[in-house]
Task: inverse folding
């Protein structure tokens, strides 16, 4: 499935819709975000956190220097960034960070492409950001699970041809 987001407002709204869709899942799949610098990964995550119960006022920022920011949403969100990690280090530390977030937490991992695929969490939804002339575009692929209907429905307004 793919989505086209014409501006930052749409990017935030899409994130909120996905966050709302995932909030009701007892064990949500990890969200794996890949794409160039400035593609919209952190902005999407800000919308996602704001769309979840308890996240309305959260100050969402890139965890590039802290590796992980946790947000008091329901379920809790563990926002992880692999940008500054070497692939081997990232593969070693990411599972520990996901575990540290606690059972039932939603892991959102930016720069997942820095990890070998064998180290990617499973099940997961891989959001791959693609450069386009205007706005943002991403594809979503389910890994080790089916795309939850609630997430597909949340993305429908931004699906090309919708």
Result:
């Amino acid at each position: 499935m793919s989505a086209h987001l014409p501006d930052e407002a749409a990017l935030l709204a899409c994130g909120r819709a996905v966050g709302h869709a995932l909030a009701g899942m007892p064990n949500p799949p990890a969200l794996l975000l890949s794409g160039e610098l400035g593609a919209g990964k952190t902005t999407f995550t800000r919308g996602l956190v704001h769309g979840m119960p308890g996240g309305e006022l959260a100050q969402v920022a890139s965890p590039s220097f802290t590796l992980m920011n946790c947000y008091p949403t329901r379920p809790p969100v563990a926002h992880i960034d692999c940008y500054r990690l070497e692939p081997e280090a990232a593969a070693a530390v990411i599972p520990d960070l996901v575990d540290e977030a606690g059972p039932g937490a939603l892991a959102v991992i930016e720069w997942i492409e820095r990890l070998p695929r064998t180290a990617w969490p499973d099940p997961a939804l891989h959001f791959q950001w693609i450069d386009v002339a205007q706005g943002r575009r991403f594809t979503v692929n389910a890994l080790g699970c089916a795309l939850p209907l609630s997430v597909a429905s949340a993305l429908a307004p931004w699906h090309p041809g919708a």
